Amino acid sequence: MSEKIKITCPRCKHKWEKSLPELEEIKTIYRGDEKEKTKRKVVEYRAVCPVDGTFVIIEVRRRP
Predict the structure, then answer these.
(1) How far is CA 51 from CA 10, 13, 17, 64, in A?
(2) Cα(62)–Cα(44) distance, rounded to whole angstroms?
(3) DSSP, res 14
(4) In the chain, domain spans
(5) CA-CA distance, 17 to 48, in Å (whole number)?
(6) Over the stretch 5-63, which tens digit does the pLDDT of each residue have?
(7) From residue 12, how far is each of 19, 41, 60, 63, 64 by CA, in Å?
(8) Distance between CA atoms of 26 and 9, rounded to whole angstroms?
């Protein structure tokens, strides 16, 4: 079971939902100080608005 992510298009304000496996993963970023024992993993996903085709970037925090 995967959670649905609520997405809002910044251009036309259309709202819809998608699950993470349906989105395109574009980048993984590890945030935190090098001395820090726990770094935060942030994954960027790309969605396309079904109304006007605008690309929307969504950042999702995950534990490494």
Answers:
(1) 12, 10, 13, 35
(2) 11
(3) -
(4) 4-62
(5) 11
(6) 999 999 999 999 999 999 999 999 887 777 666 678 899 999 999 999 999 999 998 76
(7) 21, 30, 22, 33, 35
(8) 18
Q: What does the block give as tokens for 33?
A: 């100080």
Among 21, 26, 23, CA closest to 7: 23
Position 48, amino acid:
V
Indicate the residue type of 32.
G
Token pair for residue 37? 């024992």
Cα(61)–Cα(5) distance, integer angstroms: 13
